[in-house]
Amino acid sequence: MNKCFPPTSNSIDFVQSLQEIKSKNEIFFSRLSAFVPETYFPREITAIRALEIADLNDKPINQFTGLRFSLVNSSTNYNRKRAAFVLSRFFCDDLTPIGIEDGDLSADHRHGSAPSCMACHHRLDPMAGFFKDIGFRFENFSQKSQMTFDDGSVLDKSKYQNAWKSSSTENREWNIGYVRSVKEPWRNSYGVDLHDLFEIIKTAPEVKRCLVKRLFEYMVADNQAIDGSYLDFLTQQYIHTAQYNSSLAFKELVADIILGRSFLKTDLNPQECYDFSPEYQPGKSPPCRVNFVLQKNCAGCHQPNNLSGGLDVTRWVESSKDEPKPHFVHVDLAGKQYPSAISFARFIDRLNSSDPERRMPLKQFMDSGERESLFRWANEMLGGGE
After folding, report:
1. Is the Cα torsion angle 213, 219, 223, 224 positive or negative in sign?
2. 10 Å Cβ neighbour count for 89?
3. Is 221 helix (H, G, I), strand (E, B) or coil?
4. Mutual orientation of helices 205-219 and 194-203 as an angle, nearest 10°?
5. pTM (two decimals)
6. CA nearest 341: which of 382, 385, 384?
């Protein structure tokens, strides 16, 4: 090979560059291990932990500084990467743009004008506001007149922070917080800075539920379906015990998951639930990932004693020769069953409508994550895929 293709100066330079990179990496890890030998030369396997960026700093860092290299704040994203990370990691909210609580969010243009954009940004932008004082390399710019971003841009801070100023009709200075509902702002948790965000994370029930869900995913499988009522059952047990002993609460939660059928069973079907709350009554029902949501939000009006719109979400009918797909009991005024295609098309329309007289559940609050799961499942049943 060398006789046919003698090394060029470029190839020699490339190899030398690789050798330099290798040498620097070796020096880096040797210095790191020398800096904290008890961490990188553990005596026991239980003492092993991941490399900590904090070990390279001269002073302690807060919860988010270690993420500064990947979750940068630019003059265009206005902390939205950081907000998306917090919502996903701590609240299990992956910002799937399905539907929003109010169809008219474009009046002040804070969240754009396209419904698909508003569906995410009405939660994303207020969360981003918690980082409004954090700029270049995660430095605090609260006492400075200008904001310097990680992309090198500089902007007048008062102009920059106007993005989170509340409108004149709102009884607060900042539109910053964890948003659960647009139509009912009293359900939301508002704040001003990262200290407020940390307090919300410590107290929000969604965070505790997300902790339980993430632990289940870690111990079982990250794509395994989990019944909503079982998740709520575990969460309530965890919250109850944590009030007097948080360490015991976590240990009991781990034990509950280990002793569950999902953990013990092999060859899991990702779409099937194996664990249920004590109140669960087995029977024919929709997939577990949506059945709890249906019973919680819809069964009050759509059941045999209150057959609103002719729909009964408590009766699930398996597929047959006449109807190849399973479906709910859903009848017209003459008592005739609707074809499943029509039934699910109406289901989706009412679930995603912006008209308060049509949007389901009628004039009632539904968690955006639950609305998303129903929408996605109904769309699958209709044949639209994910």
Report:
1. negative
2. 14
3. coil
4. 70
5. 0.66
6. 382
Check: CB of residue 81 under 8 Å from CB of residue 72.
yes
Structure tokens, 240: 């109850």
Residue 377 near residue 98 (C-beta atoms within 8 A)? no
pLDDT digits (tens, 9 = 90+) for 176-198: 999 988 778 888 999 999 999 99
CA 34 to chain centroid = 38
18 and 11 Cβ atoms separated by less than 8 Å: no
Cα 310 to its chain centre, rounded Å, is: 34
Planar angle of CA 369, 73, 85, nearest 5 degrees: 25
Q: Please, are residues 375 and 352 in contact by the beta-carbon 8 Å criterion?
A: yes
What are the tokens at 295?
């019973």
Residues in the chain: 386
Kindly calculate the radius of gyration of the chain based on its CA atoms and give it in whole angstroms: 26
Burial (Cβ within 10 Å: 0-12, 13-18, ≥19) of residue 18: exposed
List of residues 6+ apart from 332 with CB closer than 8 A:
310, 338
The tokens for 146 are 């200008």
For the ranges 62-71, 72-81, 261-270, 321-330, the lowest mean pLDDT is seen at: 62-71
